Amino acid sequence: MAKQERVAVITGSSRGIGRGIAEQLGKDGYAMVINGYHAADCQETAAELAAEGFTVVAAPGDVSQKSTHEMLVKTAVTNFGRLDTYINNAGIAQIGNLLDESAESFHKIYATNVDSVLFGTQAAAKQFKQQADGEKIRKIINASSIAGHVGYEQLGAYSSTKFAIRGLTQVAAKELAKYGITVNAYCPGIVGTDMWDYIDARMVAENGGTKGQYLKAAIDGISLGRAETPADVADFVSYLASPMSDYMTGQAVQIDGGVQFI
Ligand SMILES: NC(=O)c1ccc[n+]([C@@H]2O[C@H](COP(=O)([O-])OP(=O)(O)OC[C@H]3O[C@@H](n4cnc5c(N)ncnc54)[C@H](O)[C@@H]3O)[C@@H](O)[C@H]2O)c1
Question: Which pTM does this prediction carry?
Fold first, then answer.
């Protein structure tokens, strides 16, 4: 495969926001490693992106495992010769009250949402340090959330993982700046993906009501009056991945259509 000008790994890019990011970075001229939990999803999305003319390779794997991140970096370097941007996008949601939270489900969401960001940061930084040329800024970009700025009822474990990602983002930004690596996070609002279908269905199961009710209530709270799309998020991630944001690090920016104003 031909070497590209810029190369990215995007975890959880087989679906939802991650896929939207892949569509945008593809237009920006990136070669990309497409990851997701389910191999079939991942292969299918990669084939569709390739049919759109983008340079991609599929690399399914569980982001809660350190070895997956090492594999993703290796896949980028083997196929495209380098790595410039590592996007820790994959994540899961869970619904439930804190008093009912089990150790098992709490550890599962931390492994998927937080361990993954630590391991992705480590694997990417190791590669970036080897490539360091003193000029080009390399990027680590993490998915936090509006729920990483304000805790949401029945999304307690999820919210706390997204706060933790902001903490990791700040510390990594401080520790890695000397290597020419910036670390930032994007914090989406209410994005119409499988994740919100799941949240809405679980809210109905926990609290009663009808399908779509909780999603509609959340959308009603958006100043701009519509649900966010993966493309809305991807436009901002495109900026974070580009040299336009080279002087920005350690930030976790809400891109939510006007839900929270803190
Ligand atoms: N949807 C929203 O409203 C919203 C809002 C704020 C933040 N976010 C965050 O954005 C990110 C993407 O969310 P989404 O809405 O696109 O979710 P989604 O459920 O639509 O897609 C999730 C993606 O992550 C992958 N994934 C999940 N667990 C994985 C694992 N263990 N290993 C590898 N891949 C795994 C899935 O395969 C899929 O590709 C998440 O981190 C989420 O917390 C979403």
Answer: 0.98
